[in-house]
Each structure stands twice: as structure tokens, then as C-alpha cells.
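Meet my pick.
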Amino acid sequence: MIKDFLLVGMGSFVGGGVRLLVSRWVQSLAVMAFPWGTFAVNILGCLLIGLLSGLPSAGHLMSANTRLVLTTGFCGGFTTFSTFMNENSALLKDGNHLYLMLYVSASLAAGFLALLLGSQLAKLF
């Protein structure tokens, strides 16, 4: 249990750091008040966890420990539900109802589609 805890913690640490870099970079390219940075990391995270989870467990592509580090650890640290909710609250407070509806709808739809795409991509391995 301690080993798994440390593996997940290591993956989360790296995932959180990468999230900060990717999110800020994407947001710096944005020209509107839409939270593109968080949207991008959440969709990329869905794609990645779909791919990683879809890879065969019995194969020699990845050990159980590596899967734990990458899925629960890295992807868990990389994506962020609490930031997503906080940004939705900010959009509501600012009266950006259209962006609020678009953000929630697009995040759910694109996240699920990215997860399915990742699972399909995993079948190629």
C-alpha cells in the first residue's frame, strides 16, 4: 500500500506540474474570457487516460505499477475538476452565461469523446 501511495504521489506531482505549464501556455494564446487552459488539460487528460486504460493489461507494454503511476497519478494530477468548477462559478458571477453553458457542455462531450478515442487508439497496440 505504501509503494502504491508513493507511485501515485510521484505521478500526481509530475501531472500537476505539467498541468500548470500546459494550462498557462494554452490560456496565454486565448483571446477571449473562455477558460481554454483548463479545458485543454481536461480533454487531453481524458484522451490520455482512455489510451492508457485501453492498453492490454496482460501485454508487456506497461506494468501494473506503470499503469498506476500514469493513470491514477499523472492523469489524476494533470486534470482538475475543482478548477473546472471554480471557473464555471467565475463565469456565472461575471454573467457569461453563454460561455458557462458552452464550457460545461463542451467539456463533458469532448472529454467523453476523447476518452473513447483514447480507448480506440489503445486497440492499435
Notes: The chain has a mean pLDDT of 93. DSSP finds five helices and no strands in the chain.
